[in-house]
Every structure is written in structure tokens, then in C-alpha cells.
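Trying the structure run again after the queue cleared.
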Amino acid sequence: MPNPSTTPLNLAMRLAGYGWHILPLSPTSKRPLANCPTCTPTRGAARHPIDSCPCLPAGRWCHGVRAATTDPDRLTAWWRSQPHAVPGVAAGPSGLILIDLDTHATDPPANAATELLPGIDLTGHPIAAHAASIRTGLDTLALLARLRGGTHPWPIDPDHQPVVTVTPSGGRHLWYRAPAAPLRQAIGQLGWQIDIKVGWNYGIAPGATTAAGTYTHRSGHLTAPGYPPTWLAREVARVASPVPLQRRHPYPPPRAPRPDGVPGRYLTTVINRGAAELAKLKLQDGRQRRLSALAYQAGGLLAWSGLPEHQVTSWLIAAGEASDLPTRLAARIVHRALLNGIGSPVTPAALRHALPA
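Done. C-alpha cells:
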């Protein structure tokens, strides 16, 4: 772990050696430093392009987060000029995603059932009983974890363990390895007091000290942050995909299996038959299309079936793997198609004549 007493330059150099792209930030405002009027953005574009910028080779900083680098000579020049600058980390160039859990002293949303987790209606759901205890982004993420099949938002296995930083206000920064699919910044869309920062967004480096205090590295390996667990990756994709998924109906909360079990058996049969057809296909693009169609169909039936979403997701990903699709490709196809299907639910009445015996 970085020592909080290390110099900003030493910290910047250490993280850059691990592949974290670093930029200098103001100790007070925590914004990227700027010292070149020629590089000041105008209407969303710099006055001269970063690839021909004369300031960067000369040891000056500009272009904000887009100037982030792992170049030790450039970092040394920056911190020699501004030794008290705070190291910031550019998420996208570093191959990372930052989930920022705040602890702002604000009251929870008035309508907790619909506003704590935007897009997920908890009205009448037993888990809504926990809403009264929600006070911070940490609480909100824990609520989402319980709802989506994970009781521990921060797994301890190395493959899924983030780099966890405790912020001066008591919040948390969770640095995960970014998924292959492109994402966009999502402020408050995953949950109350939860921000997702990706691409050309940045966060305070683990171990850095600002005027507000030190961002203490609590756990996780700086050399190898883990990937988000499946349930969290699915939820991040739901709210941070480049083109937001449009739904005609609110995202349905999970429901207990129906007493007679017929809807659940029907969906299970649909998935089993689809998996068998998938395994017979020879071309990879054909398998991808069939898996996407199957996941979309399963999504439409999910609310009616009463089966847990995480269980159906696991079955579909396994079907893709069994057809020799790479796991990450299968997971990406399933997550997107299943969510689209959930947005177009199929009514039980339309299926009663087709129920298996």
C-alpha cells in the first residue's frame, strides 16, 4: 500500500509504473491544473490538438485529463514545477472504472422505493424494508447487492477485488478493471450517492493527500485490480452503456417463484431448448445471434416466470460457453439482450396455450 507520507511525485511514479495514467490536480479544488491559455477548451475542443501540443514536451501541463501519462520524465517535470500537486488517475487510459460512493450530508430521496435505485421500483418488495437504513452510497450499494444476488459488494477473491480507497469524508472509491464493452459516465444513475467514472474521467489517486485529507488505500492490489462481480457488471452496463437502454416499463423487482412452478418450468424449457440449438451451430456469428435472441426471449419472460434474474443470467452465459463462445463475449451478449427483453415483457395470457405439460 502507498504510505500516506510519501511525496506526491513518488506516489505518481509508483502508480505510473503499475500502468495507472497520472495527471496533476489542484490540492484545493481537486481539478486538473491548467497553465496554458492556448490549450483552454473552447466550445468543447482545445485550441490546438494534444498530439502536437508544445506544452507537454516542455514539461508543462494542459489539456486536463487527456494529458494523463505514465511517462516518468513528464511526471518528474510536472512535479518539479508543482511539488504539491495531487496525483489524479485517468480512468479510461488506465483501463479502470471508478465507482465513487459518497457520504454527503443530505437526506435520502423522498420516494425511496423509486429513487434510491433509479430504474428499479422497490414498491411493495420486501427489500424495501431496508430503505430506512440508507444514509450513504455504501448503504445504497449494499442494498443493490442484496437485490441482485450478492451479499458482499466487495468480494475477497482476487479476480473480483477492487482497489478500495477510503476518502477523507468517509466514502469509498472502488477502482475496478474496466470491462471490454464501452461505458459512459453515470452520475447518480446506479444509485443514490453512487457515481460511475470511466473513459476521460478521473479520480484522486489511492494514497494521495488533498487539502481535505488523505485518500487512504484500504485494500486491493494496485498492480492488478479485479473485475466487477457479475451482478455489479450487469448493473453498471444497465446505466452506463453508451446508448441508454430504453424501457417501456419500469425495471421489475425480483419476485418469488410462483407456487405452481409452471411459469418457471416454461422459461427453463425455453432456455434448455435454446441451448441445445445453440450448441449445434457451426459459425461463431450465428451462435452470437442465437444467444442474443435467446437472452432477449428469456428477458421478456423473466418477470412472469418468477425466476431470479441472476440465475437466468448464469444459465444463459453457460449456454454460450457450452457453444464455445468466449466467456466475456457470452456475458456481454447476455447482459445487453436480457435487459432489452426485460424492457418488453411478454404477458402470461399470450402463453397459456403453449405451456408444457
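The first strand starts at residue 22 and ends at 25. Worth checking whether this holds up in the mutant runs.
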